[in-house]
Amino acid sequence: LSLMPHGLCHPQLEGLCSFLQLSTCPEPSLVRFCSWLLALSPALSHGSAAILAQQLFLRRVLALTQPPSRHLMAALTSFCSKYSHAFCRVLVAAVLQGPGEGAEQTKLMCELVEECLEPHSVQLVLSQVLEVPLSEKLLPVLQAVLGRQEVLPPELLDLLVLTLCQQAPAFATSLNFAKLVTAVLTVHQSQVS
């Protein structure tokens, strides 16, 4: 296993993950494995971290029908503390494109945005949300992003404001949308005219 992050190409890493059955390993083992990953030096490459995010978490997160167990949450938090960019690229994109309401997935994304992700990853989540059609299920995610009160790049803030303006008629009766617009005006009042 010590060769995994550094000496393997991506197909070999995927094969090793499959051989080790990482996508279905018991959650306590998942926590231990993520702790081991954090201790690696040098850190995983972005590509390797993305493969591990997919192998370790994608199936589990997409299958959630109730809040994640404390073991799964511990593993997610641990992984995100060092590899949040790779996690967002793989998991957030899959959740955003997933069918249906995805209530538990949305709650999980909000919790990770509020408590775990680094500022640059929060911006990545915002840009990913703005790439898909806005829906009621995504409004809490945008609210969580704004709740971090991070300084947003002007182009990203402009895109957010433009999206909200364009989508306003479709959300005319949505309390969540009204809260979101209020949050934008409050958090970024100096940048929004």
TrEMBL record:
Gene Ontology CC: Fanconi anaemia nuclear complex
Gene Ontology BP, a term: interstrand cross-link repair
Positions of the Fanconi Anaemia group E protein C-terminal domain: 9-192
Coiled-coil residues: none
PANTHER family (alphabetical): FANCONI ANEMIA GROUP E PROTEIN
Protein name: FANCE protein
Designated gene of the protein: Fance
